[in-house]
Amino acid sequence: MNTLNILCILLVFILSSCGEPEDKTEPLKTLSGNEKKQVLKKYRANAVLGETDLFYSLQNHKKNDCRLCHEKAILSHDDGKQSHWNIELKHSQTMDCQSCHDEEKPQELLFGKKRIALKNSYQLCSTCHFEQAEDWKGGAHGKRLSGWKEPRVIMNCVSCHNPHDPKFKHDSTVAHPEIIPQRLKHLKKGNKSHE
Amino acid sequence: MNKSEKKACEGSCSSSCENDGSFISKPTSRKGAIATLLGAALTGLAGAKAGGILAEEDERKLSDIEFDEYFKKNYRIMSDEEREATVRRLEQKSKLKSGLKINISDQKASEGVLFGYAFNLSKCNGSRKCIEACCEENNQDKGSKMQYIRMFEIDKGENGPASGTAEYNHNALPDGKYWMGTQCFQCDNPPCVKVCPVGATWKEPDGITVIDYDWCVGCRYCEAACPYWARRFNWEAPKISKDEINPEQHYLGNRVKPKGVMEKCTFCVQKSRKGENPACVEACPTGARVFGNLLDPKSEIRYILKNKKVFRLKEDLGTEPKFWYFMD
After folding, report:
1. Whole-angstrom Cα distance, residue A164 to residue A167?
2. Hey, which of A71, A98, A133, B116 would disulfide with A126, CB 3.0 to 4.6 Å?
3. B137-172 pLDDT, tens per residue?
4. Which of A1, A149, A171, A184 to mutate to test binding with chain B, by most B CBs within 10 Å of its CB?
């Protein structure tokens, strides 16, 4: 497909899975053009899929690196405590942790029998959500972070959808902007010249 | 009026006023004389208005600017130098009047670019973030709360904005509703352009219909001609505080518009011509808004037109809007 030939750059905000996200990261929309370019340059990952360049950004990278906690495999923890006890899986009724995560190497995901990096999680998502994945690659699904010109920078699946609870959350609605009927206002003032 | 003439007027005014109180005593051409008279009148007015707030030199500069602005041409027939000159004048005017440094661009349309827009009805959740961003970007009057985008909440099964309402207020998403945003659709066959009696609005080569705010006479014919209610009229002098003004402006885009002219969405011409997305696209939390170049076969907008079921509003009118609605 033609769209795959686009130099496709993915900016990935990996969801925090270890601990609470405390630091206040600046949302990208408030960055100016140059600052945005620098951010993109800084977080360039050398991952390539086909002809697609993968970019990923972790503003709180150190904190969210799974290896901070997961030096050993999940199942070999001595104290018997389960990691990620606070994660409630609301994805599909038939899924469990091992549907996506590799038990032996928790910093990686299982894609069939192949291991893939967390930043390439969209490959895993697209095994079921193939229609959305097609639209996402083409541009009809998901949010674009760059301008309309190349290079193309789009949000990854997990930038918007929490993989453990993927239903899109509605955060807030901007209040109804009060529209003053200008004509009435003029009439009230006694100025009828504009009627 | 060219530069030398202007110089002559200034000279004749300042020197002769001081010397003998008459500024027609010097031999000038008829045009020059009229301009001199007007210039003197304008200078007087501006002086009376500013009364002591500005230094005398600034006052003089400001009245010179206002004089030149008054006699400038329609933006479409200006030469590149004239465009550059008016842009610089407007920048200086802002600096003299409010001390605000603004950057007005006169960037032209790039070749091989035709802007198009798509709106995903399945994804929009009516959060109105687009409207908020639009108002921050485009320097609209905050007093009258002018907005270019209307967001309609419509019952599922109902067809079109006429059956919905723009005046909803809730934070939780209700079931059985969908949302449809409207704005200027940048028609390829724009009826608003045809009715303008003074040629103050036209379609640019990249498909954006723009307004020369300094040429518009405010007759509102275009407002009546637009079948999509996309145009807005500036009833009052804009109330917008200094720190709310977006300093990155375009002559045909988000300048602070004077009282009594039309304005509307320009697909954020100041951003889109630089390769960025319009403010509404950037602000949309769901990615329901897609913007791109219709002439680029690899663009997102072309993917949507090729692979999705799309429609436009009031297609039977033949206005050929470049704004498509689509569903997943």
Report:
1. 9
2. A133
3. 999 998 888 899 999 999 999 988 888 888 888 878
4. A149
